[in-house]
Specification:
Blueprint (H helix, E strand, L loop, with lengths): L7 H13 L4 H27 L10 H20 L21 H7 L3
Helix pairs in contact: 2-3
Length: 112
Amino acid sequence: MIPRGFSAGARRTWEEMHEHYDFSASELILLERALRQFDLGDSFLKTAQRAGVMTGGGKLHPLVNASRDAHQNALRCWRAIGFAKGDGRTRRPGRPGGDEWSAKRKELARIP
């Protein structure tokens, strides 16, 4: 079930993600938060653009920074789920185990 209050784009993304992946309960929370933060950031940016991106004092409208922050929060949630650019799961964080290391990397990683 799609959470209430999503934009059309967030609803499409929610549906597409559920078609391709199975999510744990904690991942569903992160996915919902990510999509809500993307929507919030987009909303802030549209409002700032309507009001004028620059204020009278030659500074950026405060909602431009709020939009950036919301999008960064969304990306943090997105990465915490394990997605990179939306095209699949990222590799597990940390160094590769066992034979996946090249000889050069093994040499560089050796502690004297």
